[in-house]
Amino acid sequence: MSKLKVRNLTLGSGQPKVCVSLVASNFEELFAEAMRISQMDCDLIEWRADYFMYVNDISFMRKAAYFIRYAIEDKPLIFTFRTLDEGGGQYIEPDYYFELNRYMVHTGLVDIIDLELSKLADSDTDVVRFAKQNNVKVLLSAHDFITTPTEAEMTEAIYDMRYLGADICKMAVTPNDMEDVLTILQSSNKIQSERENIPFVLIGMGEIGRLTRMTGELFGSVLTFASSGKYQSAPGQMSIHQLRKGLDVIGNRNEGVKFGKEKNS
């Protein structure tokens, strides 16, 4: 599993790191939610700016980012504006999408920006290079809220993200049965076996996909997402308590146990 350092956190070491999304529409709610989430047992915080009512005002966005950074202290912060096409909260102009992400890099207040693969593939923006020049990591993402693509399609999408400069490659899809869940896990296993240098996240959304949120330690995903307790930023998210329990059970590989007996220490 590839390792990636973000502030004092190492993605790809041990269990997948747990991220909670910060969703708020105004400044009062934003600061209160940031303070509340900062006290949770999460490793990273994702600001879902597509729900913030002042997203079209750059000066307000810097102020909001400062409030969040103050509240969460040294926890890594992912900046995400999720577009309507991929399940987001509101529309912004395509050119402004890249301007906004570039500006958030410029503030020095965020650690990772989430860019959608579909937007990047259709643009000649330099935002990925700009982020890297300013020591901000780039997470490229893609979402399918209807189906689960084939193993080959998911694997290829992750490889494409890496080729385009992603530090973290994320794909969230929708399994409709357990066969789809197995396809997700097979794709994850293929990626971690063939391309150990790629920090990636491969998640199945919805109730059927819950298992895939807990298997990263075995199948290679470096990051997983939990509910804040007030909002789910994607279907199927569990509470942090539920997710942590699942991670402990599924990822626990006791090498000291053999045939029902513990080895002598």
TrEMBL record:
Name of a matching Pfam family: DHquinase_I
Entry binding sites for 3-dehydroquinate: 21, 46-48, 82, 213, 233, 237
Pathway: Metabolic intermediate biosynthesis; chorismate biosynthesis; chorismate from D-erythrose 4-phosphate and phosphoenolpyruvate: step 3/7
GO biological process, one term: amino acid biosynthetic process
Catalytic activity, EC: 4.2.1.10
Active site as annotated: 143, 170
UniProt KW keywords: Amino-acid biosynthesis, Aromatic amino acid biosynthesis, Lyase, Schiff base
Broad EC category: lyase
GO molecular function: 3-dehydroquinate dehydratase activity
Catalysed reactions, semicolon-separated: 3-dehydroquinate = 3-dehydroshikimate + H2O
Subunit (UniProt): Homodimer.
Family, as annotated: Belongs to the type-I 3-dehydroquinase family.
Biological role: Involved in the third step of the chorismate pathway, which leads to the biosynthesis of aromatic amino acids. Catalyzes the cis-dehydration of 3-dehydroquinate (DHQ) and introduces the first double bond of the aromatic ring to yield 3-dehydroshikimate.
Name of the protein described by the UniProt record: 3-dehydroquinate dehydratase
Source organism of the structure: Vagococcus carniphilus
